[in-house]
Amino acid sequence: MTKLKLLLPLFLILFAIDTFAQRDDIGNYEYDKEYLFGANKNTNGGLIGGFVFKVGTRITDDQFSFWALEFSNVKNPKEVRYNTVLGNSYIFGKSNYLYSIRPQYGREVVLFKKAPNQGVQVSALAAVGPSLGLIAPYYIEYALNRVETVSEQYDPEIHQSRFNILGTGRLFQGIGQSELAIGANVKAALNFEFGVFRSNVTGLELGYMLEGFTKEIPLIPTAENRQIFQSVYFTFYYGFRK
């Protein structure tokens, strides 16, 4: 029984090594298509700034073209979150959300290829595209007196006491009252790819984005609002290739 306990882990290790060695896509990075999904963190967003879906196509051994679709929540740098007496949180002075939908077309060039089964592949990319901004009202729960509350869009002329704010409205409340803003975006980034198999990919994208709209976006009425936004971002992504 003791010998069996010693041999069993060894057998499992040898089996794993053999299985790994038999995979025909180890260290083979020749592929024609890739499909990636990612979560974004940026200097204009919250804990999770947005999400991205990307489809890439090989042009040459070191060049790729891609289409991407990004969805991001854009914030004003002056936004500050407070806690209420009920334990909820809200952003005082915020009147609107800005949700940006960004179709993009870009090119990617491989700078350093990774060795089989190890290393990191580094590439540079750039993309450009239109921006569709949804300006959605920011709702708060506001106490009119000790027993009566209302849920409505924040207005600095009406909701002057932040101590009467009990929290925010429901998720996506007022999204049907959104206004549209048209704009454009451009980004440049470095892409760091990990993993050893051709069939899947994991990596990190670090970059800079510039986005502008045809009108000023009133996120905080009492602060300086913008129509041009710039941010530094990173995106963790995972996907597959074929």
Please outline what is shown here.
The chain has 242 residues and is mainly beta. 9% of the residues lie in helices and 56% in strands. The chain has one helix spanning 2-22; strands at residues 33-42, 50-58, 63-74, 81-83, 89-91, 96-112, 121-137, 139-143, 149-153, 165-168, 179-194, 200-217, 226-241.
What does this protein look like?
By secondary structure, the chain is mostly beta strands. Helix content is 9%, strand content 56%. The chain is built from one helix and 13 strands, in the order H-E-E-E-E-E-E-E-E-E-E-E-E-E. It has one helix spanning 2-22; strands spanning 33-42, 50-58, 63-74, 81-83, 89-91, 96-112, 121-137, 139-143, 149-153, 165-168, 179-194, 200-217, 226-241. The strands form three sheets. An eight-stranded antiparallel β-barrel has the order 1-2-3-6-7-11-12-13. The longest helix has 21 residues, at 2-22. The radius of gyration is 24 Å and the shape is elongated. Mean pLDDT is 85; it is low at 1-28.
- Percent range for β-strand residues: over 45%
Strand element count? 13
Radius of gyration: 24 Å
Helix/strand order: HEEEEEEEEEEEEE
CA-based shape: elongated
Helix content: under 10%
Helical stretch count?
1
Characteristic key phrases:
8-stranded antiparallel barrel; 9% helix; elongated; 56% strand; 3-stranded antiparallel β-sheet; mainly beta; single chain; 1 helix
What's the helix and strand layout?
Elements: H1 2-22, E1 33-42, E2 50-58, E3 63-74, E4 81-83, E5 89-91, E6 96-112, E7 121-137, E8 139-143, E9 149-153, E10 165-168, E11 179-194, E12 200-217, E13 226-241
Antiparallel strand pairs: 1-2, 1-13, 2-3, 3-6, 4-5, 6-7, 7-11, 8-9, 8-10, 11-12, 12-13
